[in-house]
Structure formats: C-alpha cells, structure tokens
Amino acid sequence: MTEVYIYIFLTIVVLFVYLYPKNPLTPALVSLKQFFTSWKMILHFVAIAFILFLNKIELTIEEKMRLNYDLTPLFHRWEGDIVYTIQNFFHNDLLTNVVVYFYVVVFTSLIIASFLVYLNEKDNKLFYTFCYAIMLNYGIAIPFYLFFPINEVWAHEPAGVQFLMLDVFPTFETEYRALSGLNNCFPSLHTSISVTLSLIALKSNNFRWKTIVLISAGIIIFSIFYLGIHWITDMIGGVLLAFFASYTAQRIADGRFKLGKSKTEQYAQNNRSDETVEQ
C-alpha cells in the first residue's frame, strides 16, 4: 500500500495547488494549526477514527458470525446483466487506469482534503457537518454489511463480469481487501461518501472545490460499475444513505451552532438591558 499512500499524498498536494495557486502550503499549515489547537475538532476526528476502526474489525466479526445465507442471487435476478453491459460497452485500457486511480486514490484524497479545506476556510459549520456525515455513513452501513451479505458483481459467477481492478492494481486482494469485504456491497460506501462530499461541498463558497468534488463523485460512481464491483441496487442504497447522512449531519451541526448563537445573543441582550437600566 506504500505506493497508494504516495499517490494519495501527491494528489492532495495537486489539489491544494489548484485550489490555492498563490501559496498552497500556507492553507495546509493553517488547517493543521487550527485543528491541533481545538480539542473539540480533535475529539471529532477521534470519533471518526473509531468508526473506521469498527468498519475494519467488521470483517472479523462477520467471520465469527458464519451466516449461511447469500442475497447476491436476489440482486442478480432483479437487475440482470446491467453491470456486465456497462463494463463491456466502455471497456478500454486507458479508461481502466483512470477509473482505478479515482476509485482507490482520489476517493481517499477527497476525504482527507475535505478536512483541510473546511479548516483552512474557517468554515467550522461545514467541518462538523462533514464529520457527522462520515460517522453516519459508516455507522449505518456496518450493520448492513454484517447481516445482508451481498457479493461483488464480478464474484457472482452468472454475471460474467471481470474484476478490472486487478489489471492496474494486481495486489488489490492482498493489500486492500482487508479494508473492504467481498460481500460488503450494500449500500455502496464509495457512492454514499462521494455523494455526501458533493452535497456538503455545494454549500462551500469555494467554486473550484465544488467543481472538483462533483466531477470526481461522478467518475467514482461510474467506477463501481465499470470495475465490476457494485450492483445498481448498491448505488441506489448509497445515494439514499448519502442524502440521509448529509441532511441529518447538517441538522446536528445547525443545532450546535444555533445553540452557540443563541447564547451570544442572550449575552448581548443582557448587556443592552443593563445599559437601559443604568440610563
């Protein structure tokens, strides 16, 4: 995975050069400084790390559960060979390289960059909205992965779909599979996180950031079919999860900031009352 981490780092660097061309290093340093001087932000990051840890050990828990049912044939019966048709229609070696890059590298880069962008722009409301949304996405998806085993499309023999990931990332099964189980398909987290990033980015004042996230999300969602990983139903579930998580996260963040605002307003009102009495 070392090579993947290097690509992620370089991608984030390129993103910041594009977003802040005059001095890309300063925004990154400002973001990190603001983060490490706020214990509330650090606690939110720890909470996200804990959810991601649960997502990782979910595979261990799943192995111990030993479920004796598989819902994959059901998905194939009502979808047919749609994913197979998409993959064969667009199949191209150059496109495969681009799509794998977005699925593996850009996806992770956007998540990390989101923290830095909202911190740099001092948009705490969007920062916390993003944190809550990530927690909700993973927190809701994990139970589905435990109790609703759906195999990836390529692994379901009747589908006839190729796992094109291996054409570019031949060690995927040994290096990356531990982060994503073969039967952890519904809902598609690549879809839900990408759509969530887009919904939150749309509220940002940074036009370049909005554009990058929206275009990347579209390519990532296309990649889940092109690479032979997800079913159409997985994508639909991911979109629904994204809208729910984003909406709920925004409501939580709104409540948090409204509470802070009301206290400030109350303090100002009390000061005005005192001044009136003195007069």
TrEMBL record:
<keyword id="KW-1133">Transmembrane helix</keyword>
<feature type="transmembrane region" description="Helical">
    <location>
        <begin position="6"/>
        <end position="21"/>
    </location>
</feature>
<dbReference type="GO" id="GO:0016020">
    <property type="term" value="C:membrane"/>
</dbReference>
<feature type="transmembrane region" description="Helical">
    <location>
        <begin position="126"/>
        <end position="148"/>
    </location>
</feature>
<feature type="domain" description="Inositolphosphotransferase Aur1/Ipt1">
    <location>
        <begin position="86"/>
        <end position="247"/>
    </location>
</feature>
<keyword id="KW-0812">Transmembrane</keyword>
<keyword id="KW-0472">Membrane</keyword>
<dbReference type="InterPro" id="IPR036938">
    <property type="entry name" value="PAP2/HPO_sf"/>
</dbReference>
<feature type="transmembrane region" description="Helical">
    <location>
        <begin position="209"/>
        <end position="229"/>
    </location>
</feature>
<feature type="transmembrane region" description="Helical">
    <location>
        <begin position="98"/>
        <end position="119"/>
    </location>
</feature>
<protein>
    <submittedName>
        <fullName>Phosphatase PAP2 family protein</fullName>
    </submittedName>
</protein>
<dbReference type="Pfam" id="PF14378">
    <property type="entry name" value="PAP2_3"/>
</dbReference>
<dbReference type="InterPro" id="IPR026841">
    <property type="entry name" value="Aur1/Ipt1"/>
</dbReference>
<feature type="transmembrane region" description="Helical">
    <location>
        <begin position="42"/>
        <end position="61"/>
    </location>
</feature>
